Amino acid sequence: MATIINMPRLSDTMEEGTVATWLKNVGDSVDEGDILAEIETDKATMEFESFHEGTLLHIGVQAGETAPVDVLLAIIGDEGEDITALISGETAAAEVVPEVEKTEVSEAIPTAIPEGVEVINMPRLSDTMEEGTVASWLKQVGDSVEEGDILAEIETDKATMEFESFFSGVLLHIGTAVGETAPVDTLLAIIGPAGTDISAILAAPPEVPKATAPVLEEAPAPPTPQAEPVAVAPAVTETNTVPNTGRIMASPLAKKIAKEKGIDLHLVTGTGESGRIVKRDVEQYTPTVTTSSQPTVFVPAGQEKQEEIPNSQMRKTIAKRLGASKFSAPHYYLSVEFDMDAAIAFRKQYNSIPETKISFNDIVVKAVALSLKEHPQVNSQWFDDKMVLNHHVHVGVAVAVDDGLVVPVLRFANEMNLPQIGTQVKDFAGRARSKKLTPQEMDGSTFTVSNLGMFGINEFTSIINQPNSAILSVGAIVQKPVVKEGEIVVGNTMKLTLACDHRTVDGATGAQFLQTLKEHIENPIRLVV
Fold first, then answer.
1. What DSSP designation does 439 have?
2. What's the first-to-final CA gap in the chain, in angstroms?
3. 253: part of which helix (H) or strand (E)?
4. What is the CA radius of gyration of the chain?
């Protein structure tokens, strides 16, 4: 029987979606888990996967077209099946399943689910997400839930995202508690009519998710001794924190504004649902002046103190990917020192243009992009069965965030001018620190630049961001004595280190790339002609 796929709601504020591209055509075979299309929402362009198997019989929204949520997107069924009645609107004979609902209804519970009860599974909120950690629950068991209410904040490997309910009812059960981590598609919560008996659902044996590998049993680790507290902190009102976790209940926008204004959210009273801090609470907050003082507590010298911080999903992913890169790719390093006098003079003159401001990092990124066009071997990627030479230049720029490091991508960086590069990097950096980058903005790099010069680091080496073949580490500009035309004078130099994967980039190839890069940076007029 044919299944109607409707335009899904892929974000909490999405009212309509635009099909960016179809990855399947009418007549193609579709397996469960295949990516059907890329859909542009009000927040990002996201991959949309199929939860059905069969043949793609009909496409209701063409590439480039926009349609409201729940409008016919596609029909999947048996090859040759007659769907004329479905296309004309007579859908009674078909199994009509909104796609987003389908992603949240557990298929792992064999028992009959009472009418009106919905089983919510851990959602896949990013393209690389394998498991999620519940950062906070915004609804508690027994609370009324309306469609569109935010149920929880879930930490993925890339960001902490709000997860909204697509059902109305009462929250009957929480399957993953605050702070717990669970694989995608395992039980997250149950919603249904008040008083519904769900004991049969909870008693049913859970099914291991398809993508989950078997876990070896280990002996339980001995409990870690807790250091005794050495000082008593002032009491904090808990109306805006998640019980037993200390985590503040605040919208992402409220957190961003508070960080920019230097406001401690513990001191802000929330007026949103369940005491949640929203934008207006931060904007209207006025700090109070207190004359009370905290007595100083004497801490004996040599006293040991420890703090355990659970690894975030981002930190786990960084450890996994960089560990795999370091121990699978044969790294070697080429270090150079460039004369920066001309670049300093060039930047000063360029910034004299009204409303124009570029950084040395912008100059480096532009020079790298132009050099990569001349040396595609350095702009390559290694795979087990092939090597890919990229003739387009997508430069990843490493950005430090609280939980670790993200690498947003400047696409076709060689075709951008210096102010465009500067504006894009600033935008990426700001949104990276507030966890607003989309997965698509962090995917597809062909080369990476990591700059620690602004922190006063003169020279360092980086681990390659696979599947790239190289990464450039940029140090600070240092003023020191140099020899020019046989005389010792004061000069400005900058050290750069190129880490290369020897499987794709030989030493001579890396050296030639650095020679070209040197010509661009020491003669910056080449960047604008």
1. G
2. 62
3. helix 252-261
4. 28
Q: How many angstroms separate the CA atoms of 442 and 44, rounded? A: 12
DSSP 248: B
- Secondary-structure breakdown of the chain: helix, strand, coil percentages, each rounded to the nearest 5: 25, 30, 50
- Residue 371 dihedral angles phi and psi, to the nearest 5°: -70, -35
Task: Please report the domains of the chain, with CATH numbers, ordered by start residue.
Answer: 3-101 (2.40.50.100), 105-198 (2.40.50.100), 237-285 (4.10.320.10), 329-527 (3.30.559.10)
Dmax over CA atoms of the chain, in Å, equals 90
Q: Which two tokens stand for residue 216?
A: 């070896």
Q: CB–CB of 433/401 below 8 Å?
A: yes
The CA angle 331-337-342, to the nearest 5 degrees, is: 135
Listed in sequence order, the residues at least 6 apart from 430 whose beta carbon sits closer than 8 Å to its beta carbon are none
To which residue do tokens 């055509």 refer? 25
Residue 254 in tokens:
């409220």
CB neighbour class for 150 (10 Å; exposed up to 12, middle 13-18, buried from 19): buried
CA–CA distance, 34 with 48 (Å, rounded to integer): 9
Q: What is the pLDDT of residues 265-318, one digit of tens each?
A: 888 888 876 677 888 888 888 876 555 555 666 556 677 778 887 877 777 877
Alpha-carbon dihedral 437, 438, 441, 444, rounded to 10 degrees: 130
pLDDT at residue 170 is higher than 90 = yes
Rounded to whole angstroms, the Cα distance separating 143 from 191 reads: 10
Q: Coil, strand or helix: which one is 280?
A: helix
pLDDT in tens, 202-254: 887 665 444 333 333 333 444 444 444 433 333 334 446 655 445 677 776 78
- What is the distance between the alpha carbons of residues 526 and 523, in angstroms, rounded to a whole number? 6
Sign of CA dihedral 111, 116, 120, 126: positive
What angle, 0 to 180 degrees and rounded to 10, lies between the N-to-C axes of helices 341-350 and 360-374? 110
Q: Cis check for the bond before 467: say yes or no (omega within 30 of 0).
A: yes
What residues contact 213, with CB distance under 8 A and at least 6 apart?
A: none
Structure token pair of residue 481: 């004595």
Q: Are 192 and 114 in contact (CB under 8 A)?
A: yes
Enumerate the active-site residues. Answer: 502, 506
Q: Edge-to-edge strands of the sheet including 16-22?
A: 45-49, 35-40, 16-22, 66-68
Residues 38/20, Cβ–Cβ less than 8 Å: yes
